[in-house]
């Protein structure tokens, strides 16, 4: 059982505390190591007092298996599994009660340390396997994306004189570029160290930093493919779609705004009842800001759930049985806050049963 440097430091700290006990002559910490054949072995990983003595495993030093008048073993056991042992040699027996209590506390601390060490190593191995599998999947995902881009570009040439269908293919290419952005963002995650939150209550950044857009990018061009996607989805689902009468003249971190609206539109189509209308309203404000509202004609979300659904991993009762992670609204609200705006849920009059209103400031918020 390989152990970490942290556990070895814990071993040293625990054993050194017995320096004030002249009746303790030697302490050795062993950990369990599986053998190629036969029962597991006990391998030493630390001892006290510090010396040049050479420690051997239990299978090598047969004298350790024989009873000794002043040697005792305290098992480091968890859930019925022997993780290791603490060997104690003293000048006399029985142990005084204060020494017995201190040795017992040290063995419990070492047992907990071994459990944490094993769990940490298990999680590292699991993470390494997942990262390897993710890199393989990302590599394979690039191939069909490249094929989709090629086919779409060829189709675009054939539809040169068909503006109605040409716009659909242009929307397809825009979606392919967005997928490529996600693939590149996932690939670059290992290259960036995550920033620690400023407090225990701070929400970690949900959107990879590499997806942050330019700070002064017009929003309207990024909304056009989203509106095309919404219109196509509404047509496939045989439901009314109400596009905005105009596009906002806002500019800033438009990539973040597009992410917010994409999540809101996806939720509206996914969770509103079949046949319910879905729409996007755009309203300019006197102070130069904008309000963008994604609404649906479904039943209003219950009052007790209107704030909870913005928490990571939380979903409304009506959509709990459907596929989803419960992260979309949390991401959308966090991005809105970082933009200097806000995202709220209000109930409107029919057919607008639920309206998620994104408020954008007149000027972009300071750089995150």
What is the total domain count?
Answer: 2
Cα(first) to Cα(last) distance is 44 Å
Number of strands: 11
Q: How would you spell out the order of helices and strands?
A: HEEEEHHEHEEHEEHEE
* Mean pLDDT figure: 85
CATH A-level architecture of the largest domain:
2-Layer Sandwich
Superfamily (CATH H level) name of the largest domain: Histidine kinase-like ATPase, C-terminal domain
CATH class of the largest domain: Alpha Beta
Oligomer: single chain
Percent helix: 25-40%
**Poorly predicted spans:** 202-206
Query: Major beta sheet, specifics?
Result: 5 strands, mixed
Number of helices: 6
Question: How would you describe the overall organization of this protein?
Answer:
The chain has 368 residues and is α+β, with helices and mostly antiparallel strands. It folds into 2 domains: 5-124, Beta-Lactamase (2-Layer Sandwich); 212-368, Heat Shock Protein 90. Helix content is 40%, strand content 18%. It has helices at 5-16, 97-158, 163-187, 220-237, 254-271, 328-338, and strands at 24-33, 41-48, 71-78, 81-90, 217-218, 241-242, 251-252, 278-284, 290-296, 342-346, 354-360. Helix 1 (5-16) packs antiparallel against helix 2 and helix 2 (97-158) runs antiparallel to helix 3. The longest helix has 62 residues, at 97-158. The model is unreliable at 202-206 (pLDDT under 50).
What are the salient characteristics of this protein?
368 residues; alpha+beta; Heat Shock Protein 90; 2 domains; four-stranded antiparallel beta sheet; 6 helices
Concise synopsis of the structure shown:
The protein is 40% helix and 18% strand. It contains 6 helices and 11 strands.
């Amino acid at each position: 059982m390989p152990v970490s440097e942290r556990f070895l430091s814990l071993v040293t700290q625990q054993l050194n505390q017995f320096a004030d006990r002249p009746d303790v002559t030697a302490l050795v910490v062993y950990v369990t190591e599986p053998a190629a054949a036969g029962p597991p072995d006990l391998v030493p990983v630390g001892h006290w007092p510090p010396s040049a003595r050479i420690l051997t495993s239990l299978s090598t030093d047969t004298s350790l298996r024989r009873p000794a008048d002043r040697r005792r073993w305290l098992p480091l056991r968890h859930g019925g599994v022997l993780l290791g042992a603490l060997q104690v040699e003293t000048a006399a027996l029985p142990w005084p009660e204060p020494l017995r209590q201190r040795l017992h506390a040290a063995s419990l601390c070492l047992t907990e340390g071994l459990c944490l060490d094993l769990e940490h190593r298990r999680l590292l191995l699991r993470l390494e396997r997942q990262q390897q599998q993710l890199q393989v999947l990302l590599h394979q995902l690039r191939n069909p994306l490249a094929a989709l881009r090629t086919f779409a570009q060829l189709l675009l040439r054939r539809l040169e004189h068909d503006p109605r269908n040409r716009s659909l293919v242009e929307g397809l290419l825009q979606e392919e570029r967005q997928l490529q952005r996600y693939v590149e963002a996932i690939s670059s995650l290992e290259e960036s160290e995550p920033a620690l939150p400023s407090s225990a209550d701070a929400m970690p950044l949900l959107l990879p930093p590499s997806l942050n857009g330019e700070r002064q990018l017009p929003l309207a061009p990024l909304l056009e493919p989203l509106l095309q996607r919404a219109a196509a989805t509404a047509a496939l689902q045989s439901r009314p779609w109400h596009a905005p009468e105009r596009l906002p003249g806002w500019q800033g971190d438009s990539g973040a705004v597009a992410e917010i609206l994409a999540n809101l539109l996806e939720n509206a189509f996914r969770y509103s009842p079949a046949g319910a209308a879905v729409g996007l309203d755009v309203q300019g404000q006197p102070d130069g800001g904008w309000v963008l509202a994604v609404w649906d004609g479904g039943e209003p979300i219950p009052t007790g759930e209107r704030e909870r659904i913005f928490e990571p991993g939380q979903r409304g009762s009506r959509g709990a049985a459907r596929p989803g992670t419960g992260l979309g609204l949390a991401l959308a609200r966090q991005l809105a806050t970082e933009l200097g705006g806000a995202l709220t849920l209000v109930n409107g009059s029919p057919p607008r049963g639920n309206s998620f209103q994104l408020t954008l400031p007149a000027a972009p918020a300071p750089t995150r």
